[in-house]
Design goal:
Elements (H helix, E strand, L loop, with lengths): L1 E8 L9 E6 L1 H6 L4 E4 L8 E2 L8 H19 L4 H17 L2 E2 L6 H4 L5 E15 L2 E17 L5 E9 L11 H5 L5 H19 L1 E6 L3
Parallel strand pairs: 3-5, 3-6, 4-6
Antiparallel strand pairs: 1-2, 1-9, 6-7, 7-8
């Protein structure tokens, strides 16, 4: 019996094409002696803080959105959600392989050690944005891409992605100022939520596939 993880990617946001799945073959990883999983760290991309007014001004509006998002991130000391996503995926993969996760956290590859598989998660989009049907109500839109990489050869072994937006009216929605000032920890709670949902989406794409001979 052959077991593989299949990363079937279907983004739930209009205008985004599906990504061709890439299989992560657990049998091959196990046979090759993969015993250590590590995560990578990327520079944190800018959060866009989108309001109806800023959205009307094209390039200048985009600069204003990035500036507002940068200020919100710095004033509230928030981290890139990709850090949490990669950590959760590394735990999932290590459990599936019977392996261990390097405990130093993001950046440990540069710090030393000999990982076998790298979990590389990149935030592609994170926005504080209003709902088109309720301009005064905001939440976080989050999209990320995950790659599972052979640490020795830099070969991409598998890929996956996520697209998360809390439902309007849920506990993860509030007014713009609530998010900007992190009232009742709404910003940090929502970022943690979308990161968990992203990891769950990609983890859910890890479908066990059994191929039985004859």
């Amino acid at each position: 019996m052959r077991i593989a993880f299949v990363f079937a990617v279907t983004l739930g946001v209009s205008g985004c094409a599906s990504v061709k799945p890439v299989n992560l073959d657990l049998a091959d990883l196990t046979e090759s002696g993969a015993r250590v999983v590590a995560t990578t760290e990327r520079p944190m991309p800018a959060l866009s803080a989108i309001t109806p007014t800023k959205a009307q001004f094209g390039f200048l509006g985009g600069m204003a959105m990035a500036s507002a998002g940068k200020r919100i991130v710095e004033e509230n000391g928030v981290d890139d959600p990709a850090v949490r996503v990669s950590s959760e995926l590394a735990d999932q993969l290590a459990e599936a392989l019977g392996a261990e996760v390097m405990s130093e956290g993001p950046g440990m590859v540069e710090a030393g050690g000999q990982p076998d598989v790298l979990v590389d998660v990149q935030t592609r989009v994170w926005q504080l944005i209003y709902y088109k049907s309720a301009w005064g109500t905001y939440s976080i839109t989050y999209r990320a891409k995950a790659q599972f990489i052979d640490a020795d050869t830099d070969t991409v072994l598998g890929t996956g992605s996520c697209s998360v937006r809390p439902e309007k009216g849920s506990e993860w929605t509030a007014g713009y100022k609530d998010f900007a000032e992190n009232r009742d920890a709404i910003l940090t709670r929502t970022l943690a939520f979308v990161a968990r949902q992203c990891a769950a989406q990609i983890g859910g794409q890890l479908a066990a596939v059994a191929d039985t001979d004859g």
